[in-house]
């Protein structure tokens, strides 16, 4: 059983809803979730927040955070998850923001750097990853890891 099937099954069993805020994955996590039959009962929606203006104006990430921490940061990931959860009124939310490359990396923030946040009523997890490979590989790894982190919420017993 794929992670997305497991996730939709567990959300359905518990009567929980999910929303997503995706930057570097460009909707890939949402695509996986919505490929599962019955996902419409638990997946409220997602926002592809690629531009900083969308992160700021639609999802409430303060310009000060974008200026000091950057769009690819722990703080931005948590704020995106918190705000998409509030905006779409869901039980759980995840956000993913990163640098998929091939350009845009630096010494401090290399290509492959991704922050993923998962928030819910009982937990808040944010993790930093540095994935390797080309742009598509990084995006796939970030999507799979987001699904795994969401599933982890159920395995850990927080829901």
Model description:
The chain has 159 residues and is an alpha/beta fold. It has six helices and five strands, in the order H-E-H-E-H-H-H-E-E-E-H. The chain has one domain (3-155): CinA-like (Maf protein, Alpha-Beta Complex), CATH 3.90.950.20. The protein has helices spanning 3-14, 28-34, 52-57, 63-68, 74-88, 135-155; strands at residues 18-22, 43-48, 92-98, 113-119, 124-130. Strand 4 and strand 5 form a beta hairpin. The longest helix has 21 residues, at 135-155. The model has no long low-confidence stretch (mean pLDDT 95).
Comma- or semicolon-separated keywords:
5 strands, 159 residues, 20% strand, alpha/beta, Maf protein
